[in-house]
Amino acid sequence: MKLLIYIEQSEILEKMISPCQVNPGMGGTTYTALRLAFELNKEYRSAKSNIKVSLLTKENKGDSYKGMELINIDNLEKYYTDTFLITGDIIDILIDKKLKINTKRLLTWIRHPFDYDKIKKAKRLNSEIVSVGKAQYISNYFIAGKHHHIDNLFSAERIRKSAKLTYSFNNVINEKNNLRERFVIGYMGALVPSKGFDQLAKQWAEIVKYCLSKNLKPRLEVIGGSNLYGFDENHPRLPTTYNYGNKIEYFLKREINKTVFFHGTLDEERYKLMKKCDLAIVNPAGRGEAFPASILEWMCLAIPVISSTNYGCYDAMRFNYSLIINKPEEIKDKIKFYINLKDDERNYLKDMSYTIANYFSSKQSYIINQWILLLNQNNKYINEYPSYRIFYTYFVEWLLRIPKNIIKKIITKK
Question: Which domains does the chain have, with CATH numbers?
Answer without folding.
Answer: 2-149 (3.40.50), 156-361 (3.40.50.2000)
